[in-house]
Amino acid sequence: MDLVFLIIVFFIILSIVRNPDYSNQSLSVETTTNLQIIAVVFVILHHLSQILRDYPDSFLSSRLIIAGRLAVGLFFFVSGYGLIKQFKQKGKSYLETFFKKRGMSILIPFLIAMVVYFVYRNLIGELNFHAALYSLVNGNPFVGNGWFTIMIMYLYAVFFISAYLSKENDLFLFLILIVNVIIVILIASLLNYGEWWTNAVFCFPLGVIWGAKEYRITSFLFRNYRASLGVLAVLFSFFLYIDEVFYHPIIRALSVLLFVSLIVLCSYKISFKSPAYQLLKKFSFEIYLYQGLFMQLLRSEIVFIGNRLLYVCAVIISTILLAYLMQFIASMIREMVKTLYSKSKI
Fold it and tell me: CA 136 from chain center: how many Å?
């Protein structure tokens, strides 16, 4: 596990380049997309570390336990940032095709993943149809780590509602969005969902606010760029330490928000560029969806890989191959839906 982690970190470092958009005080689509890919990679490493955490000689594995919420927070931020940027650019016309484009890009892959997971878990006698349906509302969806997809679909819907009702009034949009995020946090708390449902969710409205007011925010932070980085780094370290010794959901949420702000501020100066990112961006969401399948399968009664290095490599390679195939199937289904929709309008 440690070897794979070091190789991945080494590759990420090698892919760092100077960000040409720094003078524009904006983040390019390439920069934000690559940040999401890196976030997905660290989510996978986080989940692998949870499985391998009982090995005392694996220092990096034990430290990766905190990587999950930080990576998810970054993914939430980039999602919110991208939505508001598109809305600002296209206006109401963006909302007219919002669910057809954004919604289908999440919903169709998730529905396919539901079928794959259900067939597998049903065949091994672990799941029936009633239990599968119930899992979608009890906080433990039968699709591996499916909570994230449910949450991001909720946030997409909330963004649409906020943008539609706000009449292009930014403050009203922010207010509606934040209120709805607070509502979902309260619901998750009342239903006793795991804290991972909510510890990074405020990064989504942060991304929306940041994207809408980007020039003002960056103008303030760029006045003394190094000092801004230093303050964010110190505050993140402080709240991360407090979270380690005294857990509280607000403290944990603040540590994630500060980490994401720090990474985003760094991303104005540096970016990541590699053919590997171009390859993975088309099916990075599918990689997230199917990682849990192989983590379970390759350490089950059907197949059990005891060697940690072989296990980690097998999980990563199998996930990428299946994700590529499922992305191809999902794209075919999307095209079919578009064709049927176009014919129905004739």
Answer: 19
Q: Which tens digit of pLDDT belongs to each residue from 60-97?
A: 566 677 888 999 999 999 999 999 999 999 888 888 88
- What phi and psi values does residue 256 have, to the nearest 5 degrees? -70, -45
CA dihedral 306, 146, 101, 115 (to 10 degrees): 70
Structure tokens belonging to residue 18: 């100077």
Cα separation, 256 vs 72, in Å, equals 9
Residues 6+ apart with CB under 8 A from 288: 40, 43, 44, 145, 148
DSSP string, 116-173: HHHHHHHHTTS--HHHHHHHTTTT--SSTTTHHHHHHHHHHHHHHHHHHHHTT-HHHH
Single pTM value for the model: 0.92
Short-list 150, 151, 153, CA closest to 102: 153
Q: How far apart are CA 166 and CA 209, in angstroms?
A: 14
**Token duo for residue 162:** 């906020």
CA 139 to chain centre: 18
